Amino acid sequence: MTWLLLSFAFAAGTKSLVQFYPNEVLRNEIVTFRPIEGHHFSFEAPQKCGSGSVNEKNPREIKCQFVKSGETVATLNVCDDKKTFCRPIDLKLSVSDKQAASEAPLKKNEHINQSLKKTLIPDFVIGTPSEVSAHANTAHQPVFLMISTDWCPPCNESKEYLLPSESFKTATKDWYKVYVDGDSLGAGDWDKAVPYKYFPSFVLLNSHMEEIGRFNGELRQSEFAEWAADQSQYMNDPISALKPRVLERVDGQLLRKFKDFVSRISVEEQQKQEARLLAWALDQEDRGLVQTLAADRDFPKLRAQILQFKINELDRIATEQRKDFKTEKIKLYQDLLKESFQGDHWSAYLESLCEIDVMSCKAYLPQIPDRLTFLNKDTKLLPAERESRLGDEYYSIIEIFNALDEKVSVKDFAKQCVDHFEIMQKNSALKLSRASSQGMIACLELAGDFPREENDLKALIEAYPNEPTFLWRMARMRKKQKKFDDALAWIDKAETLAYGYNWFSLQQLKAEVLLSLKKPAEANKVIDTTLAQIQLDPGSETRNQRLVARLRGLQSSSRQLSEN
Asked: Does the bond joining 46 to the residue before it have cis omega, within 30 degrees of 0?
């Protein structure tokens, strides 16, 4: 251990041992510090965030959150991986207390597309958490949240096929249905009240605004109706009450055993409660709770989700420790493929396996025809649901053969992918289906059929002229074609209709395009303007924190471009 004693003295110029970080940060921002290649953070000596606090740490990454404005110095100890030296690095930061710029530019266009929203969600209301809470308490009515956006294909699918169905209307007839526009600034308030990870998120609350459960299945009428009926029995047993009870059982608490005995809670009922809590934890990506509940227990209906969780955990550990878990991941994917062959996302899992190991991937290619035959014969699905499922499956198959550079197969499967989404369109509540059109566009782009993709996008732009979704998608296509000036022109058009978080997405895309044009100074102006519109609260997992992190990543790319 002599190497530990070699050097803990500050040396001029050692700041380069830490990768790019912003010198000026927002108050409440979580800043990620990473050592340069071949180095790691040492915890033999203290890691200090100055006036901030350590939010998360491992040898490859330290996250500090700065809640106090003013100048500060973080002192992080860096060692080389060869164990020849360690040094404390002083990193100066200025924490800004500036308020976010006027919200007017982010709100001015919110009203433009309201008529389409009312058509697609006629039985839903829009309100703040406090407004909805007041109604729920007065009416003693459960609250059903749909958190969605205009640009999200599964969101559009649910609006066109699930929500208009009699099955959905019957299942939700007694609920107060609330729509949360995930792109509006008001979505941030809902994210604090009911944290969500993806779109669409369907969340059921009781009349006290306590969470009962989340629908995280596929967008199918039968599955939703079954979920709704199941959740209705839990209105007096919210997740907040369920969690401590289940954890007491996991810990083997004698008092809990006595209470269960007196209440005659069967083993089957206990297992059902555990599965309910685990499904919620998987949806919320609560790693600690998932690990606690899934250890040494089998949950047949959640096996695929648990396997995917284990894969994600290996990825996380591999990133932190720079280790290769290839063998372990291959085995998990093989188990996942076996588990999901008659379930969902089989081809998507195979696509992920192909990215890890081509030889293991190729062993499953002969199963693709049998998988498609199974999906075609699945009698539990309605026609539109079957076509959507097949379209998604073909999309992943295209990705697989793209990775294997088998161009003939790519072209063949892309045609079939488009065909299924075209058939799906016939059952839409809209004259021109947004969901199925988005599916076709995705398949066409994978196949490199840009002329037809452009025609389909222009048709969508003509059909839905009051929103930025398809203008933004056109800009993305131009970027992929390396037609960067044209991409910027489409972004400018989209900006005239953008609001809230879709405005932020456009600014991010604009900065990426400017970097592709090797214009770092202009990209930095866009990034700075965007950052000025963001207000952070002390939360660590908020959408704004993730947005700032992406913008900081672009700043890092801009700096590298300037230095090269």
From this structure: no
